[in-house]
Amino acid sequence: MQSVLSSTMKYILVTGGVISGIGKGVIASSVGTILKHCGLRVTSIKIDPYINIDAGTFSPYEHGEVFVLDDGGEVDLDLGNYERFLDVTLHRDNNITTGKIYQQVINKERRGDYLGKTVQVVPHVTDAIQEWVERVAKIPVDGNSKEPEVCIVELGGTIGDIEGMPFVEAFRQFQFRVKRENFCVMHVSLIPQPSTTGEQKTKPTQSSVRELRGLGLSPDFIMCRSQTPLAENVKEKISMFCHVHPQRVICVHDCNSIYKVPLVLYEEKLVDNLRTTLQLPIHQPTPRRLLIKWKELADRHDRALKEVSIALVGKYTKLGDSYISVTKALQHAAICINHKLKINVIDAADLENETEQEDPAKYHEAWRRLCCSSGIIVPGGFGIRGTEGKIKAVKWARTQKKPLLGVCLGMQSAVIEFSRNVLGMEDAHSTEFNAQTTHPVVIEMPEHNPGDMGGTMRLGKRRTIFKHKDSILRSLYGNVDYVEERHRHRYEVNPKMIKQLEEKGLRFVGHDVDGERMEIVELEGHPYFVGVQYHPEYLSRPMKPSPPYLGLILAACNKLKMYMTRGCRLSPKTSFCESESDEELSEITSRLSCNLASVDTVNGVTFPSDEIPVLNGSVE
C-alpha cells in the first residue's frame, strides 16, 4: 500500500518530440532551479533507453563526456547539468538505463522472485521502472536527511523511439499509481522557422503531441523550442490543436546563454502554472530574489570586456560535449574574475611530428594556436593516440613558463615529459602505452581488474591529503589539510620514481590517505604548473568555481600572485542580493540591463554550451 509520503511527492516528466538534442536537459534543470528557489527540495532522474548498464564504456563521440558522481557512478552528462544548476549531489541510481532495468528483472527471475510466472515487458519491466523511480525520488540529494518534494524525470530520446516504449508505457501507468494531481508531463518540441518564409510552423509539434497522446500520456505543458519568441497566434494554434491551455504553451526561444533559460521560464509564468497544476506548496508572492539573482548573473556575463584564452589540448575534439565539464569549469572561473573565456580547442595529434610530415599547414596552425594562448589545459583520456602531442604541449608550457593544468592523463603526461627531458630517461612512458619501457613512470594500479572494462576503474569521491604547507593548490583550496574530489582512472604515477622526480623540483604535494598514490603535482619555480590525478571539473559550480581551474585562469591573466597575496580572497564588487530589503531589491531590478525580450538569438535549435558563472566578488 502506498505511503502517505510517497503520495505527496510531485513528479514532472520531461519528454521530447520532433528531434533529439532539443534541450530537454537544460529545460529540466531550469525548471528544477526555479522550484528550488521557491523553497522546494528538488531531485532529478535521467532515463537513457540504451541497453548499456551505464555510460562508463562509451566513447566520448557517442554521447559526449562520461560524468562521474560521488559514489563512483559513471553516468550521462545531463546529470552534470542537474548538479551544476541545482547544486545537489546525485547518485548512480539517478541515471536509469534499459540495461539496468533488464538486469534487475533477469536477476529477480533467476532468484525465483516471480514464482514461476512468464516474465514480460508488461507488467514486470514496467513495474520495475515505476518502483525504481519511486525509490530514487525519495533519496536526499542536498546534503541533509530530508526527502525531496519534487522529482523531475527526463526521458531521453524522442517520443516514438522503439527503445523508449517500455518507459512511456511505465509512465502511462505511473500517473494513476501516484494520482494525477501529483504528476504532470512537459513535452519539449521544436517549432521550426524556415528562412524562406520566416513563418513559425506548428505541424511537427501537433504530430508529436498526437503521438504522445496516442501512447496514453497527455502533456500538461508544451515547451516550444524556437529561434525567436512565439507569436501569440502561434501559441493559440498550438493550444487549440494540442488540447493544452494557452498559458501552458511555454516559449523557450534561443538564448545566448543557457543560464538565461530559468529567466525565460519565469517570465512565461511557469511557477504560477506549476503551482496550480501540482498544488505545490509555494507561498505568494513568488520569490523575487530568484529573478534578481539570475538577472545579475546574466548581466555580469554580458558586461565582461577582458578576454582570457586557454588552449584545450585533447583527443576528442570533434564533439564539444566530450569535454563539457572541463569547458564549464573554465567558464565558471573566467566569469569569476570578470573575463570572457576563449577556448582554443587543439587536437593533440596535430602537435605531433607525424602531422608535420603529413599535413604541415595543420601542424603549424595547431602550434600557432597553442603559442597564442595565455594558458593550457591537458584533460584526461584513454589510448595512445595524441599522447605525444600532449607531452609536447606540456614541455612547451614548462619551458616557456606558461600556466598549465594537467588533469588525470594530463598530470601523467607532465610526469612523463619531466622524466624524459629533465631526468634524462629518454624512453620514459606509461605502461598503458608502452609495456616494454625501461622507465615505467606511470603504471597500472595493482588492484585494477584487467578483465571487464565497465566499472573497474578507481572511481568516485576520494580524499587527498596535502603534504606541503606551501603548496599553491593548498592555498587555492583555502589552506585546508585535505580535499575530496572525484576520480576516474586505471593508471597512477609509479611510487618508485617519486624520489628522483622530487629531487629535480617536481613536487608531489598531495597524496591519498595511505600516502602511496600521488594525487597533486606542482613544479617549483613555475608560475602555475599543476597536475591533478582527480577530475576537479565535476564539482565546479557556477558560483563556486573549482580551485585548480580558478588558479589556471588567474595565472593566465597574471593575477594569481596578487590573489595569493590577498589571502586567496576576491574583492567585493558585486553581490547576490542575499540581504537586501524589498526597496533595495526594487532599486536593483531597475538598474539591471538584462532585457529578456531582446537577448541575442543564435542559429540552430540546440542550446549553446556557454554558462554564466559568478562569485560574490572579483579580482581587481
Question: What does this protein structure show overall?
Answer:
- The protein has 620 residues and is an alpha/beta fold.
- The protein is 37% helix and 19% strand.
- The protein contains 22 helices and 21 strands.
- A 9-stranded mixed beta sheet has the order 11-10-12-13-21-20-19-16-17, with helices on both faces. Strands 5-2-6-1-7-8-9 form a 7-stranded parallel beta sheet, sandwiched between helices. It has a 3-stranded mixed beta sheet with strand order 14-15-18, covered by helices on one side.
- Strand 20 (518-523) and strand 21 (529-532) form a beta hairpin.
- Helix 2 packs across helix 10 (261-267), helix 6 (121-137) packs across helix 7 and helix 13 (324-336) crosses helix 20.
- It is globular.
Largest sheet descriptor: 9 strands, mixed
The whole-angstrom Rg is 25 Å
Instruction: List low-pLDDT spans.
Output: 1-7, 574-620
Oligomer: single chain
**Distance between the first and last residues' Cα:** 61 Å
Please report the number of helical segments.
Answer: 22
Estimate percent helicity: 25-40%
Class by SSE composition: alpha/beta
Mean pLDDT: 86
